[in-house]
Amino acid sequence: MNKVLKLFLDTRAWLIFPIIGAIGYCFADNVFAVEKTELQFAEKAVGKVVPSDNAYELRQQGKDIVFVSVRERAEWDEYHIPGAVWIPHSKLKEQNEIAWNLLKELSETHEYVLTYCGAGHRSGFVAKQAQEEGLKNVYNLDGVSFWKEKYPVFKGEPRPADKNPKMVHLDEAYYYYKAGFDDVDFIDVREPESIAMSGGNIIKGAKVIPLSELIKNLDQIDCKKDSVFVCEGTAHGGECSASPAAGKIVIDKLGCKSGHIKYMLEGHDAWEIAGYPVEAYKP
């Protein structure tokens, strides 16, 4: 009798445990299922952007996303998001047919196209223009400077130290300015749209040479002077990579000594917040 009972209990266990296991699996699957992420937006100084965290989650979940870097060659070579496509802002700005056709093709063959630059300024204008051209799935990423804080980037070959511009902080840049040195030029490399978005001011007495037009205006750079390049900066988060990129272009194209080529890390916004001299930009 004991053997019969034991056999019955063993048989019942074999029948019951799989049922319990199946129920438990279904329960766990429902409780711990990961909800699919949808495209999200955040409001920043540059307008509506897709946060890097959201873009990364979407990519990890297999969403059909392509990143488009609108940074210039020196910026792209330094680092970029893996798998990104490079379409420089300078080409899009001059309505280059090849550049725009490539962007249109990406829009037609992918669910989402996310443009990016350093902190979302230049790429924001590209995304806005693309939307106006009917490319409704082109959006602006918050910027590769936010992305690289947490997520991988592809890094190019490091540049020799004597080929890199010198970073200076706001206080040092203001010292150069206040001292009134005749051999120091402040050069604003923001796009006119970025200047307008930031209130329309530039550092008083500064030259304005947008990064997208720098190659065509290298004759305005005097290698015998110190040049301090300025872009949006870090006042509103992120990093503006346009000013160091400008410095690298000048060093490479003109052969200027790196000690004479500088960029202000904090940028124009911090300069204006500090109450330092500005004037209205008049194109």
What name does the CATH topology of the largest domain carry? Oxidized Rhodanese, domain 1
Label the overall shape: globular
- Our Rg estimate from Cα atoms comes to 26 Å
Strand order of the largest sheet: 9-14-13-10-12
Helix percent reads 40-55%
Which architecture of the largest domain does the CATH hierarchy give at level 2? Answer: 3-Layer(aba) Sandwich
Task: Please work out how many helical segments DSSP would assign.
Answer: 11
Look at the structure and give the mean pLDDT.
Answer: 89
> What is the CATH homologous superfamily assignment of the largest domain?
Rhodanese-like domain
CATH class of the largest domain: Alpha Beta
* Unreliable runs: 1-33
> How is the biggest beta sheet arranged?
5 strands, parallel
Domain tally: 2
Structural class: alpha/beta
Distance between the termini: 102 Å
In percent, how much strand structure appears in the residues? 15-25%
Total strand count, please? Answer: 15
The secondary-structure element order is HEEHEHEEHHEHEHEEHEHEEEHEHE
List descriptors.
Oxidized Rhodanese, domain 1; 18% strand; disordered N terminus; 2 domains; five-stranded parallel beta sheet; four-stranded parallel beta sheet; globular; alpha/beta; 283 residues
How would you sum up this structure, described in words?
With 283 residues, this protein is an alpha/beta fold. It folds into two domains: 42-155, Oxidized Rhodanese, domain 1 (3-Layer(aba) Sandwich), CATH 3.40.250; 161-280, Rhodanese-like domain (Oxidized Rhodanese, domain 1, 3-Layer(aba) Sandwich), CATH 3.40.250. It is built from eleven helices and 15 strands. The strands form five sheets. It has a five-stranded parallel beta sheet. It has a four-stranded parallel beta sheet with strand order 5-3-6-7, sandwiched between helices. Strands 1-2 form a two-stranded antiparallel sheet. The protein is globular and about 60 Å long. Mean pLDDT is 89; it is low at 1-33.
